[in-house]
Amino acid sequence: MKEPGHTKQDPIVQQLQSLRYPGTIDVTDAVMAKVRTMPLLTPYQLRRQRFQRVVTAVAACAVFAVALNVTILFTRSYNEAQISDVIASVYNYNADYESTSPMHEMAAIEYLYD
Questions:
Q1: What is the DSSP string of 64-100?
Q2: Total number of domains constituting the chain
Q3: Contact partners, residue 105, CB within 8 Å, separation at least 6
Q4: pTM confidence score
């Protein structure tokens, strides 16, 4: 049974503890040398990037609007014959209405202003 204050270490563990890595472990110098070679962003470049983002967003919205209009144009079904029949019947109704009783129009106008 081992006593709490006394620990006997294995000789292999002692050898491993005494080993030291011969190279440099600190990578700060290498990272800083790499950072020094990289170009820094200037405010002009930042403004240009922001402008490019805005232009890209506006272009995307324009493409979406055009695509939506084209989709609506080609998917909407018109019945041109029925539309022309309705217009003709409304025209004929108004033409018949005006020719038979011109006083009805005056009565309608008087009713609106009362």
A1: HHHHHHHHHHHH----HHHHHHHHHHHHHHHHHHHHH
A2: 1
A3: 98
A4: 0.34
